[in-house]
Amino acid sequence: MEFLAGIHPKIVHFPLAFLLFYPLMELLFFITRKEFYNKSALMFLLVGVIGALIAVLSGNQAYAMVSEWNPKSLAIFNTHQTFANISIWYFTVLLALRFFLHIKKRLNQYLLIIIFLLSLLGSYFVYQTGFYGGKLGDENILKSTSTYENKK
């Protein structure tokens, strides 16, 4: 499972990018009404959610590889994990709603505005996840206590 822990910092950027560009696809669909943007929005959301699931699994393994946590790093990690969990659940529910509305062809102007606003709120959660994850990496809090690093 060290493999999963090691790839976490490398793969988290992909779901971040997909989930942060997803609201743009919704906005473009709202403005243009082109089916291309409708399907693109759905695909961005789907790929983002799948990538986020992989990122959460690898992040859990990275957490398990750390043998000792100091209070500062543990507090930052807990906040990072909380926002990651909120993000994954939030976007999974939004994906189910978006997929249902797409299949049933019930996307009207009002629902598109609501979905766009919901996607912006989800982007806030993703941003916070990345912010606290970056704090963990930037401050090298894990450097001396990671069993993964010590085995290299």
Q: Key features?
A:
152 residues, Four Helix Bundle (Hemerythrin (Met), subunit A), single chain, 6 helices
Could you give the topology of this structure?
Blueprint: H1 2-11, H2 13-32, H3 35-65, H4 71-104, H5 109-138, H6 147-151
What does this structure look like?
The structure is a single chain. The protein is mainly alpha-helical and 152 residues long. It has a single domain, classed as Four Helix Bundle (Hemerythrin (Met), subunit A) (Up-down Bundle), CATH 1.20.120. 86% of the residues lie in helices and 0% in strands. It has six helices and no strands.
CATH class: Mainly Alpha
| Whole-number mean pLDDT | 89
Any idea what the radius of gyration is?
A: 18 Å
CATH architecture: Up-down Bundle
pLDDT below 50 for ≥5 consecutive residues: which ranges? 144-150
Q: Which structural class is indicated by helix and strand composition? A: mainly alpha
Helix content: over 70%
End-to-end Cα distance, whole Å, is: 15 Å
| Outline | elongated
Give helix and strand order, one letter per element, not per position: HHHHHH
- As for the number of domains, it is 1
Figure out the total of helices: 6
Strand content: under 5%
Largest sheet: none
Q: Count the strands?
A: 0
CATH topology: Four Helix Bundle (Hemerythrin (Met), subunit A)
How would you sum up this structure in a few lines?
This protein is mainly α. The protein has helices spanning 2-11, 13-32, 35-65, 71-104, 109-138, 147-151. 86% of the residues lie in helices and 0% in strands.
